[in-house]
Write a structure and sequence with these properties.
By secondary structure, this protein is of the alpha/beta class. Among the domains are: about 55-210 and about 355-375, Up-down Bundle (ABC transporter transmembrane region fold), CATH 1.20.1560; about 210-325. It contains 22 helices and 10 strands. A 6-stranded mixed sheet has the order 6-7-8-3-9-10. A 4-stranded antiparallel sheet has the order 2-1-4-5, covered by helices on one side. About 35% of the residues are buried.
């Protein structure tokens, strides 16, 4: 982890932290990959750096740092004391060198004292540096922890529209990089920038007050040239570095997508297409990486040249001063020691500057994510939903995911308390949209959705969703145990309650047949279970939640006919005395509904119970006849 590598960068040899670019894009997303996510060498930006509001972003993140303000102040005090001891080492060394030229009768005591002082100062410098690290560690990691949780909380508040349009790989990298960027900025500022500034001021004061102005001019002039050269070359390199990292992230996303869609790739035998697509991106990454790395050599050589010229000039003037008797040998050693002592941390300036720019870029991506305004928000005066009867009403509702593509037109119906209403129709008719509106994943364009006369846009989202249970068409499970996934509906439920729900969902025998029973891990997205088994888990969860309102969205679509009948019986028991909305494709599953809505192109075209709709010989009757014919053909 780069933040750990540079936790005390004055101690790390420069060759260890020269710029690198690792491509392990697949490995980063394997379990336990958070370490790789934190790597400060994996950077990219989706927006030009000049568009960033760096100082505003830093101010936005300051509260995460200031929680431990006492520790911060103690760490800064330790830093200053460490630098005072560090600058004192050359001063004692000067006295020691000069002392060795004194008369023999005082030579015995003086060097011993100076040697002890020299050792004590070095020990104190190390002690205060380590104390600074210890004090600041809690600050850094607590800030990362709070920022990560804050971002995750914010992501959960964002609308379904945002999550349907998001790129999961990019979001996960933004989340990881954002937390890492805060840690990196804190590291570099506390362990690199501030120490250099403190040491620079201390050295400046000594040189200006005790020596010829030419020494201060050479040292400060060379430092200024060094900084300007480093910034100029680093800014020039940034274009290639950012392009390189954009292509790296693109290749990462392409590789992950090909693995997520593994079965689709295999179905069509398109492994070569996926490899070719990734390789084309990696080729562009390679070209930019080569230029970026080659320009690093130019930067290193230029920095070394500036240091060499400065040291040579200092030695020339210092030697001349010694020869003229204006400086002692100790002074000669002191000036050169100061110069080298300043340039050692400056050797990391290019890395510090580059990584801080990268961190500010990453921070900008995170701040933009945090600035994303949730589409669906509770009103300031929102009250919890108060369910007394459980009546649901859609009152002249119109809705469109996009303004130019309306989905629902003047939908008006109600579900009486304890009754079952089914919605049928062709794909794209808007059936599942009704469930999303009922959960308030979206706000209606026109009209209202009411529960017991309360507009759901005026109640809290938490209370609304707590009152509704759903069995979705596509059940996605956590890569955890069956026990975890079942209890997710009501974490405080007892084991007996979980088992009772599982039995009602006709899943108990299956769970008992598993070697690990309820502790069986279901795999990513529940891939170790069949479609029917996943739907049974979803049904058990809906039963366990014990909501007043139930929604079944194609709840038996993955079941065979025999299992379907068993589940339908279970659902009938589970939905007794519940207000129930059933979205169905198979008409045989909803013949007992109190009312059936037939939808076409976002409109209700027929309304009635099963027998009444058949007698009309309209759209429903045609769908029923078609499905009955298909069932007879399958049996034949």
């Amino acid at each position: 982890m780069c933040s750990l590598l540079h936790a005390n960068c004055n101690k790390v040899p420069q060759k260890i932290i020269k710029e690198r670019s690792h491509l392990n894009f697949i490995y980063e997303y394997l379990p336990g990959s958070f370490y790789q996510h934190m790597s400060a060498f994996h950077r990219y930006t989706a927006a030009p750096t000049e568009n960033r509001k760096d100082w505003a972003n830093i101010r936005a993140l300051m509260p995460y740092l200031w929680e431990y303000q006492g520790r911060v102040l103690l760490a800064l005090s330790s830093l200053i004391l460490a630098k005072v001891a560090n600058v004192g080492v050359p001063l004692v060394l000067k006295e020691l060198v000069d002392g060795l030229g004194m008369e023999v009768d005082i030579l015995v005591a003086l060097p011993v004292a100076l040697l002890l002082a020299y050792g004590a100062l070095r020990l104190c410098a190390s002690l205060f540096n380590e104390l600074r690290d210890v004090l600041f560690t809690r600050v850094r990691y607590r800030a990362m922890r709070r920022l990560t949780l804050r971002t995750l909380e914010h992501l959960h508040k964002l609308s379904l529209r945002f999550h349907l349009e998001r790129k999961t790989g990019a979001i996960s990298r933004d989340l990881a990089r954002g937390a890492a960027s805060l840690s990196t900025l804190l590291n570099y500022f506390t362990f690199s920038i501030l120490p250099i500034m403190v040491e620079f001021l201390l050295v400046a004061g000594i040189l200006v007050s005790q020596y010829d102005v030419v020494f201060a001019f050479i040292i400060f002039g060379s430092v200024a040239v060094y900084v300007a050269f480093t910034f100029a070359v680093t800014n020039w390199r940034m274009e290639y570095r950012l392009a390189m990292n954009r292509y790296e992230s693109q290749a990462n996303n392409e590789a992950i997508e090909s693995l997520i869609n593994y079965e689709t790739v295999k179905y069509f035998g398109n492994e070569k297409i996926e490899l070719s697509r990734c390789d084309n991106t990696l080729s562009k990454w390679e070209d930019n990486a080569v230029i970026s790395q080659s320009s690093m050599s130019l930067l290193n050589f230029g920095q070394a040249a500036i240091i060499a010229v400065a040291v040579t000039l200092i030695m020339f003037f210092a030697a001349d001063e010694v020869r003229n008797g204006d400086m002692s040998i100790g002074d000669f050693v002191l000036v050169n020691a100061f110069l080298l002592q300043l340039f050692i941390p400056l050797g990391f300036l290019g890395i510090v500057y580059r990584q801080m720019k990268h961190s500010l870029t990453d921070m900008d991506q995170l701040i933009k994510l945090l600035d994303e305004v949730p589409e669906i928000q509770d009103r300031p005066d929102a009250q919890p939903l108060n369910i007394t009867r459980g009546e649901v009403r859609f009152e002249h509702v119109a809705f469109a995911y996009q303004d130019d593509r309306p989905i629902l037109h003047d939908i008006d119906f109600s579900i009486a308390p304890g009754k079952k209403v089914a919605v049928v129709g062709a794909s794209g008719a808007g059936k599942s949209t009704l469930a999303r509106l009922l959960f308030r994943f979206y706000d209606v364009g026109q009209g209202r959705v009411l529960i017991d006369g309360q507009d759901i846009s005026e109640v809290t989202q938490a209370s609304l969703r707590a009152a509704i249970g759903i069995v979705p068409q596509d059940t996605v499970l956590f890569n955890e145990s069956l026990q975890y996934n079942l209890a997710y509906a009501r974490p405080e439920a007892t084991q007996d309650e979980i088992i009772a729900a599982v039995k009602l969902a006709q899943l108990h025998d299956f769970v008992q047949s598993l070697p690990e029973g309820y502790d069986t891990v279901v795999g990513e997205r529940g891939l170790k279970l069949s479609g029917g088994e996943k739907q049974r888990v979803a049904i058990a969860r809906a039963i366990l939640k014990r909501p007043r309102i139930l929604v079944f969205d194609e709840a038996t679509s993955a079941l065979d006919s025999e299992s379907e009948q068993a589940i339908l019986s279970a659902l009938k028991v589970a939905s007794a005395d519940h207000t129930t909305l059933v979205i169905a494709h198979r008409l045989s599953t909803i013949i007992d509904a109190d009312q059936i809505l037939v939808m076409e192109a976002g409109r209700i075209v027929e309304l009635g119970d099963h027998n009444a709709l058949l007698s009309r010989e309209g759209v429903y009757a045609k769908l029923w006849a078609l499905q009955q014919h298909e069932r007879l053909e399958i049996k034949a």
